[in-house]
Every structure is written in structure tokens, then in C-alpha cells.
Amino acid sequence: MKKSLVLSFAAATVLTFTACGGNDGGNDGEGDVDTNENATETNDSEEGEDGGDEASQPAEDQTLIFARGGDSVSLDYASVTDGESSRVTQQIYESLLTFEEDSFEIGPGLAEDWEVADDGLSYVFTLREGVTFHDGTDFNAEAVKLNFERWADPDHEYHFADEGYAYSVYGTQFGGFQGDEGHVIDEINVLSDYEVEFVLNETLGSFLQNMGMSYFSMTSPAAFEEYGSEINENPVGTGPFQFVSWSRDDSIVLEKYEDYWQEDLPKLDSVIFQVIPDNSARLTALRSGEIDIMDGLNPDDLEALEGEEGITTFERATNNIGYLGFNADKEPFDDPEVRRALNHAIDKETLISVLYAGMAEPAKNLIPPDYLGYNDEIEPYEYDPELAEQMLADAGQEGLEMDLWTMPVARPYMPDPERAAEVMQANLSDIGVTANIVSMEWATYLEQTEAGEHDIFMLGWSGVNGDPDYFFGNLLHSDAIPGGNRTFYRNEEVDSLLDQAKTSIDEDERAELYMEAQELIHEDAPMIPLVHSIPVLAGSERVQNYVPHPQTSEPLTEVELSE
Amino acid sequence: MLAYTIRRILMLIPVLIGMSLITFSIIHLIPGNPAQTILGEQATPQAIAQLEEQLGINEPYLVQYFDYIGGLLQGDLGQSLRTNADISNEIWPFLAATIELTIFAMVFAVIVGVNAGIISAWKQNSLFDYGAMLVALIGVSMPIFWLGLMQQWIFAQELGWLPAFGRGNPRDPVETTTHFYLLDTLLSGRMDQFWTSFRHLILPGVALGTIPMAIIARMTRSSMLEVLRSDYIRTVEAKGIPKLSVVYRHGFKNAVIPVLTIVGLQTGTLLGGAILTETIFSWPGVGRYVFDGIGNRDYPVIQSGILIIATMFVFINLIVDLLYSYIDPRIKY
């Protein structure tokens, strides 16, 4: 059936080809399509890593093509926040510490060792010796100092604020910039060539986690001198791959750095980040063997890919929350009883099966389950429409009518916001609540929810450093109004617990404090936590050792292609 | 002819100024703050305020407009808010990609459309005529994105004949000087790359060219039918000149004016219509450039992109007008 349609369509289009003199017989000389032939008969591999071990040999051409929906904004990693930029800078740059390959567990990176003073106000990092930047210069303590000072000090010659660069992540993670009241890094001292000390004026629980973030990677000081504010197009780091070229909206080409400090790594000769905006077109390119890995798979396509020859899928561990937030400043959502009632009204399981193709888990807390301090004791509000209806009646809110604000764009935590809104609208109508779906343009949506114009709204949040403070501090602390706290939730007790947890450097104590905070938050129910989604990537079975990291990107140091 | 040409070119100035003012105003009427869009949902109000100031978007509207026009007159298209890059430096590769694609699509549309139209008129009511007009009808009504996706599915995925995306093989990048890949590969003597680039043009070019091809075919057919029925054709035929020559040399020459109008108009439309094709086939052209700019509220990028597309549209119309008076000297203004 499929064949005949293909043929008749082919005939029609071929007819039109003949006139322009095209002779489209051969397809050699390019390698575009020949990868298909290499696909073996095995189509049962789930993991992607094993499965090909006995038969697979490293391929001769070790060029990996990674396809994604959008281009990088800048290769000056600290000045941008989008995932497509860090996906590339992860390969070129390295930070003092690194995360484990599949978790936010911190480990040595460019720093081999580190020591924290008892009062938590001083951190001494011992740097790895013999590491060179791609321009051949040495990596040392001076380089670390210069990099941090350039982000912290708005007047630094390499801060490039006049050229429109904003180092907002630095501000968020370290409490502002030099001269700001909350800025925690007091001074940076070079103790020796390979020893550097950070002195803080206030303890910061997430300090070491921050050091692992790719935003705080090391650029060659010589490169700043050479390229100035054009550093974003001429990245020079210590990472496994060095920059070759960038054609905007098309591709970024990187090649293996031969003097990389880790023996025999990376395994790939080069990596090409290719922009293919359309999700279906990207999948077609994967199926035709023109690319090796693709991001941004439609959940609906996932089922079709199961068992497809030569193609495998990779699951990224969840690191986000999709939620429905109330406006606690507006009636009747200022009443916790009403919020709790509505928490019982949403059927998360249906939502997950309909919209996420099962690739999500229902949420009961704000933070993802494997985070420090995740409170598993919390009893989720069960889906119980009758109870919800009863509770609403008790609160005197029968026949409640409200606006349900819907995101206009898809996000990893919300792949199809419109349909999600319809599902939830139906849930609410089951308990006699009328929800009018309201949608607007994305930037306006963010502005207006920040300003508190909404009744209830859909949104989400993704983690960056695996630290719970990034979720709680930004979404539920009263200091984040206006800002990330769009539920206008204010609870002094919660604020105080979060403050203590933020500054504590004792992991157990932090966990304890967050657990306590989650109990209070659960009771107050400022939001309906919906899901923690599991992003899925698809790739060719030739790709070996690819492990997606919960932050949106990962170094491809160990990846290789088999025949 | 020269006076007419100069007059026509001078007339472009008010058109272009008006156009820039309209684009500028419309873009600034769109709600939403670029700083918020650039920084996303995880941005703090301080970061947004800081970025707004750096971008200069809290200046009054007219100040921004005159800044923009001032720069424009010096050949400065401004800076992208998102990437900080100079637009005049970075726009050429996108523009070249679009022009290459548009030319290819138009050549395809004209060659196929004109010939199909002529033959249909010549063999009126034949099987070919019905077939071609049916294809033309389908062609006009087929959405580009659907056609594009079907082509990818069939010719790239199922048959593996043609590449599904991009302008060339990413594993073997083309060395660019002009950014017209067909030209660049010829200049560097890389025939293998030329062939690759050509094959990459086929699917997007056909997708983009299908609608104009269909329109041109129908226009040519009706125009030709009219001419073939006229007296002078009967005279020419009576002289015993071969049919092929009658149709192509004597007939088509007189049927060409309306066809030319359509070709001109369609070329202009293609420039704008390229956005969808460029997105589906990952063609890094100016349509995509503007489209991404819109998504990011990148005012300078949107303004410059639209201004350039509009300018080209205006110039194509100019060329068509000038061609009229060249082909048919009776057309004078």
C-alpha cells in the first residue's frame, strides 16, 4: 500500500525532473545515504551501549553529526542561557569540577582536588598540571582568576558589557556582581601556579555544584587578548574538541584536540552540530542516515521508532518540573483549601499517557526525585474528582469559573501545552469548574504571569546544576517576587528554611531543611506539580557510549562510531 | 529607455522609506519584550532590566527609528540583539542561499511550466493536456510544507536518492567565497561537491517551484491558445513552416508578455514563500534568518531581513517592467 503511493508520487515528480536535465541515478561520492547499509539485523538494543559489541568495529570515518532544532546563540558560554549554546561549548570548554556522566554528583575536572575551610568561607582548588588550551598556552591559576574576575566585575576589560553581553547566570548563582550586596565571592587568590583560593563573604551551599556548571568554564587568557569581544565566535578552551567553523543557522564544526590531557581521548575525530529546524525533517534525516543523533523527538514519534532497524533511543534523566501554578494573590486561590481541592482534580496519569507517550513521571514535589533533599514521604494529592468537588463545595466555591493560562510554546517539560490545557480543562469541568483557556504570545505570557495578571497558569522549570536551591529559591521564595515566583506564594517559615539551606554547607542538614520545606509547601499547595518529563533522543545504532546527561548537554569525549 | 529606467529607479526611494517605516512600526507594536524573550522563563527581573538597557530598547520609538535609518544610510544594518553580530556582516550567506534556491526554483518552474503550457495548448484536449493541467491544478493547491515532507519521505528516506536537508554534505564542507555553492564549487574545481550541491537543491527547489510552475503552465497555455487561434498563425502555417517552429518561434513570442508578468510576480512571492521551504529543508536562507529573528524578537534582524526581501521584490518588478518595453516596444510609459 505504502509502496504504490510512493511509486505514483515518484512518477509524478520524476516527470517534472526530466525537463530540467537532472539525471538522478547515482548517489555515490558523498556518503549521504550509505550508512543505512551498515545497519545490522539487531533491532533489540534498548541501551544503545551494548548490543553491538561482538560485531561492531570502530568506523573509519569518526565524524559524528548531531542534529538539533536551533542554532547556538553564542560560544561565549557565560553570556547565554540557552541549551543549544552549551551543547557546543561543553565540547570546547571545561570547568574546574565536572559532574558524573549521568548525574549531578560532583567530581574532579580541571581541578584535581579541592579543600573547603571549616567555616565554609574558603575553597582551595589544586589544578591539574600539563593542561593546555587549544592555542597552546598553559592552563593555570592565573587563568582561573582572570576568568572569574571577568564575569564578576562589570568594569573588567573582558566583561564586554558594552557589546551587549550579559553574564546573568553568574549573577544568579553567586548572588550578583562585584559591588552588589549579595555577591558572595569576596576575593580570588593565586596561591601558586596550580593552586587558587576563593574567599567568600557568606557561605553558599551550592558553591561546589556551581563550579561544575559549564557556564563557569575556562577560556584561554591569550584568546581574550587576541579576539576581544569576538571571543563568542572564536572559542578557545581546554576541552576534548577544538573549534573549526560556524555557519550560522547551519552547522558548527569541531575537531579533535590532539593534545587533550586525557590519554587516547576523545575517540571521535570531529563533531558537527547541524541545525534542522523541523522535527519531522530531522527524523527523516536520521532514518536516511544523514545524521547520527537527533534531539527534539516528538513524543508521538517515539512509538514508531521502537524496534526500527538501525535506530536506537537515548533517555535523558529527568531534571525538570512542569506545573500548574495558582495566583495566591487572587481570590479564591488565596484560600489553601481551594488550591488543595484543585490538586485532587487533575489526572496526571492520563496527561502522561496522552501527551508524553509515557515519558514522564507524575510529580508530587517541586524538585525531581533524585535531587538532594527530595521528600519521598510526601503523600501526593490523589486524583479524586469527587473529593475535589466536595472540598470546593466546603470552601464555598461551587460553580467556580477561571482563566487557565496556557503556554504558547512547547518545552521539554510541556511538549504540547494546548492539548495539555484541554485535558486539564476537561478534568476541571468534571468537578463543575469552568476553565477558559487563555493563550498569548510567549514573551507577553512571561511578562504578564510575572506581573500576576493570571488566575492559574502553566509553566515549568529546568535544573542547571542539580541543586535544589535553583528550584526552590527561584520559584517559591518570596524574594523571587517579581520574578520566578509567579504563584505569589509567601510563607515566612518556608523562606527561612530555604535561606538556611542555601547557606549551609552541610549536605545532611541541607537535605533535612529542604524536606521540611516541602512538607509546608505541600500543605500550602501553591501549585499543582504535574510531571517530571524524560527527554528522549534518537540516534543511529552506530553511536557507542553516548550517555545523555540530565543537564541538557554532555561532553562527547567517550563517544565513538561503529561500522 | 534610459530616462524611463532612471525615473523608475528614483521612484523606489519613497517606496523603500515607506516600507522601512511600516516594518519598523509593526514590529514595535508586537507585544513582548525582547530582553525577556532572549533570557527566557528562567530570567530574573534584574537581568532583564540590565539587558534592556544594554540593548537600548527602552529608548523612545522615534529615536530608535532614526538611529536605525541613520545606520542604514551608512550601510549599517545594525546589530542582532540576540547574537550581537553585525547584521551586514552575517546576512550575505543567508541571502546568497535564498537567491540560489529561488533561481533554481524559478528555472525549474519556467522550463517545466512554459513547456507544459505550450505543449498543452498545441495539443489541446489531448491526454497530455488533461494530464498536465491536472498536475498544475494539484500543484497550485498543494501546501508547500506537505509537499516538502512528502518529498523527503519518498526521495530521501524511502528511496535514498536525494539528501533531505542542507546545502551540502556537512562532512565535506564547501569552501565559500561567493556563498553561491554551485558557483563556489565550480570555482574551486570540485566537481564532486558541485554535484552534491546540485542534488541538495533539487528537493527544496522543486518544492518551492511547484506552485509557480503550475501557475506559469496555466498562464502559458491560455495565452498560447489565444495566439494559436489568431490569423497570422494560420498564415504562417499556410506557408508550410514546420509546426514546432510555428508554435515556439512565432506563437510563443507573442504569448510571452503575460507569462513574463507571472514569472516576475512569482519570483517576488518565492522570496517570501521561501520561509517554509527553508525551514523544512534546513536551508540556511534569509527566510529562516527572519523567521528566527521573529521568534527571538530580534528587531534589527527582522527589519533588515524584511527590508532586503522587499527591496529585492521591488527590483524584480523593475526588471520585469523594463523587460516589457524591451520585448514589446509598444509598451511605453
TrEMBL record, chain A:
Name this protein carries in UniProt: ABC transporter substrate-binding protein
Pfam family name, one: SBP_bac_5
Organism: Alkalicoccus halolimnae
Coiled-coil residues: none
Transport among keywords: yes
Disordered: annotated span: 20-58
GO cellular component: ATP-binding cassette (ABC) transporter complex; periplasmic space
The family this protein is said to belong to: Belongs to the bacterial solute-binding protein 5 family.
Domain Solute-binding protein family: 105-480
Chain intervals with Acidic residues compositional bias: 43-53
PANTHER family documented for this protein: OLIGOPEPTIDE-BINDING PROTEIN APPA, PERIPLASMIC BINDING COMPONENT OF ABC TRANSPORTER
UniProtKB/TrEMBL annotation, chain B:
One Pfam assignment: BPD_transp_1_N
PROSITE patterns hit by this protein: ABC_TM1 (PS50928)
Transmembrane regions listed in the UniProt entry: 9-30, 91-118, 130-149, 201-220, 255-281, 301-324
Main location: membrane
Keyword terms of this UniProt record: Cell membrane, Membrane, Transmembrane, Transmembrane helix, Transport
One GO cellular component term: plasma membrane
Annotated ranges, domain ABC transmembrane type-1: 95-324
Annotated membrane topology: Multi-pass membrane protein
Subcellular location: Cell membrane
InterPro entries the UniProt entry points to: BPD_transp_1_N, MetI-like, MetI-like_sf
GO biological processes: transmembrane transport
Database matches in PANTHER family: DIPEPTIDE TRANSPORT SYSTEM PERMEASE PROTEIN DPPB-RELATED
Family recorded in the similarity comment: Belongs to the binding-protein-dependent transport system permease family.
Protein name: ABC transporter permease
